Structures are given as structure tokens and as C-alpha cells.
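pinned: reference chain
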Amino acid sequence: MSNKRYYSKRYMGRNVKYTPGELWEAAVKYFNDTENDPLTTEELVKGQNLETKTVKINKKRVLTLRAFAASAGMSHDYLTDLRKGQKNKLKRLKDDKTSSQLDINECEDYLETIDRIKNIIFIDKFEGAAAGIYSTAFIARDLGLTDKKEVVAEIEEKKTVIMKIGDQEFEL
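pinned: its C-alpha cells
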């Protein structure tokens, strides 16, 4: 007797809260909400008569995957696990010749939607840093774009290690 009929019904982690379409709608809502709700800071500005005034300045919020997940009512780990789970499920479905194309398409839709959201967030951070809207150093670190510096040091002093085994000495 084959157990294949149980494979598709096996519980594979938490239940998915969103369809790919609903996930994209939640992302668009997050993008719009972030754009329409800037951070407000206060800065001192000197006027024409050398008067100092406090002026409120709106600053664009940085898009982040964590903030998106929170706005959609899920944790960052849930979103990351959803992507990993769908990727693993897709591989399993493609290996199983009896899988339906609808299941394969759904996994591909999840992966494409999550990757598209991540890509938009990456582009926003990159372009915002390039335009001086965001701190370039902070965003570069966040995006993994920091310069790596290699430090090379030469040791001039040689040390001799003598190993003694029984009556014999070995110089290393």
C-alpha cells in the first residue's frame, strides 16, 4: 500500500495567512501607507532677521521587510519561513510527477510575490541612499553593500619550536 496520498495532506508548518494576491495587496497598502505617513522631525532654522525658528520637516520612511511583515500582521520569521517553505514545496511538487500544475503555479506565485516585494524594498533603500534621502552608510550595511578591507600583516620574527620525543629533538 502506498502512502503517497498522505504526502499532499501532511502538515508543513503554519497555515498560510495570505494568498499570493492578498500578500501583494498587503504590500501595496504598506508601500502607500509608508509614503503617505512620513516621519516628522523638528529643526532649527535661521530666518531673514537672524531669528531662529523651529520648523517641522517631513522625511521619507525607509521601506523594510520587517515593517511590511508587521503591517501585514505577521512576523518577519513567518515571511522568511513562508518563502523557504514554498521553495521546498515547489521542488517537491516538481519532483513528484503526479503533482497538479495548479499547486506548482501557486508556489511559483508565492515566490514571485515575495521576491518582488523584497526587490521593491531593496530598490527603495538603494535609490534613497544614492539620492541622500537615507544615510548611505546605514543603508549600505543593511543591503550588504559595505566595502570589505583585507588586512595583511607580515611577521618578521621567526620562532623555533623544538619538539622532544624520547632522546630525539625535532626542530619545527
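why pinned: Helices lie at 4-7, 20-36, 65-71, 76-95, 101-130, 136-143. The chain has one domain: 13-145.
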